Amino acid sequence: MIRLSKFPFKTLKSIPNWSDNKSTWILLQAGFIRQTMAWVYTYTTLWLRVLRKIEKIVREEMDNYGAFETLMPALSPKELWEKTGRWDSIDVFFHVPAANNKEYGLNSTHEEVVTPLMKEFIQSYKDLPTCVYQIQNKFRNEKRAKSGILRWREFLMKDAYSFHSSDEDFINYYEWMKDVYLRIFDRLGLWEDTVIALADWWTFTDKFSHEFQVKLDIWEDDIYICKSCGLGHNKEVVDEESWFICAECKSKEYDLEKASEIWNIFPLETKFTKAFGVEYLDENNKMQTPKMWCYGIWVSRAMGIVAEKYATENWIKWPENIAPAKYYIAIIWEENLGKAEEIIKKLNLDKDEIILDDRFSRKIGFGQKMADADLLWIPNKIVISKKTLENNSYELNWELIKI
Ligand SMILES: [Zn+2]
């Protein structure tokens, strides 16, 4: 239970005039975030709660699918990146000088960590397919920033890596993974606005890769959506508008939409498994190199997109399952506190889901309490006052309920 009388991250009376997108200033006004430096934010308690709920959804769906969670380090030794030739070739890679003339990488991706890890455990065709994932901070040495909280130098990502004996095996896996991702977006309330798009990828391969893009006015990529079959195409794929031909159905008709990437999948083929010498014994007792794929979800970006999508002029109208809490309980007048706490106990609500407004001062009256309940967007507003107590009741979303 969060007691607002003790809570440090107070709301602001007015909107700080700071950012170009409305969700960022609402988050600042509500005390959810503070900027630490350009494009790097601290999450305070309530924003962290939203993040944990989103993580939980991602975790449940990944575990349910049969992927195994790990937590790899954020730092990795230079030698691993030299093996794949990527120490100098990723332009946003952070190089960190360390003691004893060493240098470490601050990981922007984890192939160089996961591949040597799995080398020990993949021995036979019976060990395939397998998939591991993590939810971990990633770092990018970005030179430019865009649109408030959406592009960060440090961000949370769910990255999964699967290993396969054949392309057919992967294709089955991919179809499952697509379902997993669509379920995640459905639970985040992003389903209607999600488009699957073809995209180019610069680090790994010349082949096309797939992205999930969420349509959003403020941002970022232009997506050409085929009018006939609905497939999206990143502008990197469509060189010029006049050249649009759908990769799926060859139609030339398209709609142009603004969107933000939230998910991607990259075929890594055997680039990393070869570099680290991962091999398994196939059914005919021959050594083979497994193929590898990776699948990302930008978790912190997903959160930013949800915030922007559900932002109204005054607050962010969270989908109920990821709101920072389920109940905002406002107690009116200090002398009612004891009785109110008894009622709260009786209601047997999930304590982790309660924000208790037990602030009593002349400045914080009924109006301020309800304004904060709205600004934080807590779906169930409970009021316990002298009037409700006299009726042996409480108010839930303005309706009197008997105890
Ligand atoms: Zn098409």
Explain how this protein is built:
The protein is α+β, with helices and mostly antiparallel strands and 403 residues long. The chain folds into two domains: 22-309, BirA Bifunctional Protein, domain 2 (2-Layer Sandwich); 325-402, 3-Layer(aba) Sandwich (Rossmann fold), CATH 3.40.50.800. Helix content is 27%, strand content 30%. The protein is built from ten helices and 22 strands. The strands form five sheets. Strands 1-19-18-20-21-22 form a six-stranded mixed beta sheet. A five-stranded mixed beta barrel has the order 10-11-14-12-13. Strands 5-7-6 form a three-stranded antiparallel beta sheet. α2 (45-65) runs antiparallel to α5 (167-187). The chain is elongated and about 80 Å long. Mean pLDDT is 88; it is low at 201-207. The chain binds zinc ion (ZN). Zinc ion binds at residues 226, 228-229, 231, 246, 248-249, 251. Zinc ion binds next to loops.
Structural class: alpha+beta
- Quickly count the domains: 2
Relative helix content: 25-40%
CATH H-tier superfamily of the largest domain: Bira Bifunctional Protein, Domain 2
Please report the first level of CATH classification, the CATH class of the largest domain.
Answer: Alpha Beta
Number of helices: 10
How is the CATH topology of the largest domain named? BirA Bifunctional Protein, domain 2
Task: Say which molecules are bound, naming each kind only once.
Answer: zinc ion
Main sheet characteristics: 6 strands, mixed
For the secondary structure, the number of strands is: 22
> What shape does the CA trace take?
elongated
How do the strands line up in the largest sheet?
1-19-18-20-21-22
The CATH architecture designation of the largest domain is 2-Layer Sandwich
Quote the average pLDDT.
88
Tell me the fraction of residues in β-strands, as a range.
25-35%
Q: Distance between the terminal alpha carbons, to the nearest Å?
A: 21 Å
How large is the radius of gyration? 25 Å
In terms of per-residue confidence, which ranges show pLDDT below 50 for 5 or more consecutive residues? 201-207
